[in-house]
Task: structure prediction
Amino acid sequence: MDSLDVIAINIRLSKFLYNYRNTPTTTTSKSPNEMLFLSFKPRTMLSQLLLTGNIPLSNYHYQPNESVIFKLNKRSPTVKGTIVKALGPTRYVVSIEGVEREVHHNQLSRVKCLSNVDSM
Result:
């Protein structure tokens, strides 16, 4: 066996053990990793794709013509824009001073309206 065969065998063995340790058994409905570490659930590719349920999707839904603020990156200043349309559940077209950009919902925030307290 040359070194490439050994590496391929090690990779296949690692993948098998990873899948074995993270697959729930039929008797307990828990994986061996969960049984070993009690309440700890290991992160798998599937668990990272699934929503956790902690944040409802309704918080991310923006309507056309809704005013939003967003940052293009961490160092850029916040910019006010308007939602033009939704491209999907997480991507939107936003108009900033007539220029349209595609942005992810992670970059968006709703504009908070303050009531006019001075008139009282």
